[in-house]
From TrEMBL:
<dbReference type="GO" id="GO:0009055">
    <property type="term" value="F:electron transfer activity"/>
</dbReference>
<dbReference type="GO" id="GO:0046872">
    <property type="term" value="F:metal ion binding"/>
</dbReference>
<dbReference type="InterPro" id="IPR036010">
    <property type="entry name" value="2Fe-2S_ferredoxin-like_sf"/>
</dbReference>
<keyword id="KW-0408">Iron</keyword>
<keyword id="KW-0411">Iron-sulfur</keyword>
<dbReference type="GO" id="GO:0140647">
    <property type="term" value="P:P450-containing electron transport chain"/>
</dbReference>
<keyword id="KW-0479">Metal-binding</keyword>
<dbReference type="InterPro" id="IPR001055">
    <property type="entry name" value="Adrenodoxin-like"/>
</dbReference>
<keyword id="KW-0001">2Fe-2S</keyword>
<feature type="domain" description="2Fe-2S ferredoxin-type">
    <location>
        <begin position="2"/>
        <end position="105"/>
    </location>
</feature>
<protein>
    <submittedName>
        <fullName>Ferredoxin, 2Fe-2S</fullName>
    </submittedName>
</protein>
<dbReference type="InterPro" id="IPR012675">
    <property type="entry name" value="Beta-grasp_dom_sf"/>
</dbReference>
<dbReference type="GO" id="GO:0051537">
    <property type="term" value="F:2 iron, 2 sulfur cluster binding"/>
</dbReference>
<dbReference type="InterPro" id="IPR001041">
    <property type="entry name" value="2Fe-2S_ferredoxin-type"/>
</dbReference>
<dbReference type="Pfam" id="PF00111">
    <property type="entry name" value="Fer2"/>
</dbReference>
Length: 106
């Protein structure tokens, strides 16, 4: 188990528990995180699970695949720390990770 902190556009934090092996998207959806829409259910086809990962944890994650990087190009407000939460698996390395939900998805 690990903890993830979701931060909305107003700076409000929601701390949730996550089981290792789950996708960050599944954790967000299960906990009703506003702004992680996940329209395609994790099929890497829509970008509605876009988020920003705090730099401290971003460097601990595997880099995005070519498919994820291509999809990120089409989200609103992409940044260097943009990721698709459907592509991120929870692990010991993600414990305490801060995930910022883009304002454009609220």
């Amino acid at each position: 188990m690990s903890e993830v902190v979701f931060v909305d556009s107003a700076g409000r934090e929601t701390r949730v528990s996550a089981e290792n092996g789950q996708t960050l998207m599944a954790v967000a959806v299960r906990n009703g995180i506003d702004g992680i829409v996940a329209q395609c259910g994790g099929a890497l086809a829509c970008g509605t699970c876009h988020c920003y990962i705090d730099q401290r944890h971003l460097d601990l994650l595997p880099p995005p695949s070519e498919e994820e990087a291509d999809m990120i190009e089409f989200v609103m407000e992409p940044k260097a720390n943009s990721r698709l939460s459907c592509q991120l698996l929870m692990s010991a390395a993600t414990d305490g990770m801060r995930v910022i939900v883009p304002d454009s998805q609220h």
